[in-house]
Amino acid sequence: MQRAATLFALGCIAALLAATAASAGRPSFNPVCNGTKIDPVVSGTYAVPFDDAPGSITITVRETDAGQVFDFFTDDSTAHFVTSVGIKGGTAYDVEPVDATSGNGLHAAMNDHSGYWYDLSYLCFNTVNAGGVG
Question: Using the 8-state DSSP alphabet, how is residue 134 labeled?
Answer without folding.
Answer: -
